[in-house]
Structure formats: C-alpha cells, structure tokens
Design a protein that fits this description.
This protein is mainly alpha-helical. Helix content is 44%, strand content 9%. It has eight helices and five strands. It has helices spanning 9-17, 38-45, 61-69, 73-97, 107-112, 114-121, 133-138, 166-170, and strands at 29-30, 33-34, 102-105, 147-149, 158-162. The strands form two sheets. It has a three-stranded mixed β-sheet with strand order 3-5-4. A hairpin with an 8-residue loop joins strand 4 (147-149) and strand 5 (158-162). The longest helix is centred in the middle third of the chain and has 25 residues, at 73-97. It is globular.
Length: 171
C-alpha cells in the first residue's frame, strides 16, 4: 500500500494499529455520515508512538484548533489524523456508490470550521469536488439558513454545510 509523502509516519502507524470491528471501518459510521462523536473518540484514543504515549487533546474542535495554531504538535496531529480519516471514508463510500452527487458536512465541523472543512475536502478533486474557498470561509448556517453551498459553480459534486440538531440525530 502506498502512502502520500506528506502523510506523517505517526499517522500511518495509527492507520495500521486502529482496530475496526468489521475490518472496514463501517462501525465508525452511521450510514454515509461520519459519526458526530468521531473527533471526540480520536481526541481521546490517539496513541501514536511506539511508547504508547497518550495524546489526549480534548473534546472541542475550536479548542484543539486554537492550541494547534499556538504550536501544540499533538493538536496538529489530531487534526491531521481526523481530516485524513474523514476523507478516507468519503473516498470509500464514493467507491462503493460509484461516485457521489453531494457531500454534506454537518455538526460542529459543518457549521463552524472552515479550516477543517477545507482539510477534509483536500485531494477530493478526482471525485469532481471543487471547493470555493471564499464560500467556505463565509459559510454560516443557522435556523433561518440551514444549508450553505461551499463548492464552486464548476464543481461536479455539490458540497454543502448543513445545520444539525445533534441531540435529535443521536437520539
């Protein structure tokens, strides 16, 4: 299996060591959606080096992004690993479905994190995804405007941010 040159060695080790119940990651998903608590799981379960060093970084992506911007390498790695895994699931489902018409980002990431949306959508151009960086940065979703398109007009895949009531979706 080949790896991108920019993929950190620790991230590759995580991919090799992370057990998934069915062997294909399906237990980490609900339908085609990444579970809302996946970031929390990653933040608490990352053990990436040979000494089993605990890399717990927190629950809230805003805090993790802030600490990463301040130079916390553990938070940077957690963000990188999360985006890689989310992107991997999008690609896997696209392969199973024979392509995608739309990608919808929901929850805290879909509603609040332009940088994480950007990271997740990186390298998905082969699917036809063209992110409009300005739309992504300006996207705001709320009860009055529950959906925002962040893909470019020439994107073959619609990329949307959607407001979610996570309490209802987890019930």
């Amino acid at each position: 299996v080949g790896h991108h040159a920019d993929q950190p060695a620790a991230q590759r080790r995580l991919e090799q060591r992370q057990p998934d119940s069915g062997g294909n990651g399906d237990q980490q998903l609900i339908g085609p959606h990444v579970r809302p608590d996946l970031l929390q799981q990653l933040a608490h379960l990352l053990r990436l080096d040979g000494q089993q060093q605990d890399l717990r970084v927190g629950h809230d992506l805003r805090d993790i992004e802030k600490r990463a911007a301040e130079g916390d390498d553990r938070c940077r790695l957690a963000i990188s690993v999360f985006a890689h895994r989310a992107r991997k699931y999008v690609g896997a489902y696209a392969a199973v479905l024979g392509g995608v018409d739309a990608i919808v980002l929901t929850g805290g990431i879909g509603e609040n994190s332009a940088s994480m949306r950007h990271r997740i959508l990186q390298r998905l151009e082969f699917l036809g995804v063209v992110l409009d960086e300005d739309r992504n940065l300006e996207a705001r979703v709320d009860a009055g405007h529950p959906v925002a398109r962040i893909s470019a007009e020439n994107s073959r895949v619609a990329v949307l941010c959607a407001k979610t009531n996570e309490e209802l979706s987890l019930a």
